[in-house]
Amino acid sequence: MFERAGARVKQVSLPHTQYSIVCYHVLCTTEVASNMARFDGLEYGHRSEVDSSTEAMYASSRHEGFNDVVRGRILSGNYFLLKQNYEHYFVKAQQVRRLIAEDFKHVFSSGVDVLLTPTTLTDAARYSDFTQEDNRTRSTQEDVFTQPVNMAGLPAVSVPTALSRRGLPIGLQLIGPALQDRKLLSVAQWMEQRVGFPSISDYGDSSRNDTGRSKRERTSAV
């Protein structure tokens, strides 16, 4: 579709993006640990009823106010920030983040205007797909294409393009250079118009069958 419109399409290499998930995990948890350190239940947020001591109230407020996911991230972040681990984890993650950003910079400086990638590994995931594995594992798998953009600080947008054989949406991701949001959104709008993916309102059209649902509705509900 892009080539028919006169664009030149070529494959490029982003060798360090494969490490983005691990890099993100380290940096995200360290930020969570740092930010949540201020949460004591006094100025804002949940405050425990425990009042035997200030320290006990702090501990109880944090225990009651954070779920297992947040606690796990705080513990991981504090571990990565320990004096003996700081250089090995946090500093290394920052270095990898720089390499990821340099990959994108190299590609865009070679004359590429936008990058086109999948958004996820499969079509839209169902709830059952997440219940078969824990949410963290599934999210990590699905974030492999979108996470590098966050590490590099670049604009990106996902455009639904087609329905899979299961009747679920398939999206493609457009990535643009830093501060080129207008160009990126212009390309995304052009792509959206050419693809003609049905909007949500189209699923309520008048092409009803004897069950009272349109063919599109039945397809999207599979």
From TrEMBL:
Membrane-spanning segments: none
One CC-aspect GO term: glutamyl-tRNA(Gln) amidotransferase complex
Pfam families (UniProt xref): Amidase
Name used for this protein in its record: Glutamyl-tRNA(Gln) amidotransferase subunit A mitochondrial
InterPro entries xref list: Amidase, Amidase_dom, AS_sf
Gene Ontology terms for molecular function: glutaminyl-tRNA synthase (glutamine-hydrolyzing) activity
Region (Disordered): 201-222
GO terms for biological process, alphabetical: glutaminyl-tRNAGln biosynthesis via transamidation; mitochondrial translation
Compositional bias annotation for Basic and acidic residues: 205-222
Organism: Dissostichus eleginoides (Patagonian toothfish)
Domain Amidase span(s) in chain numbering: 3-185
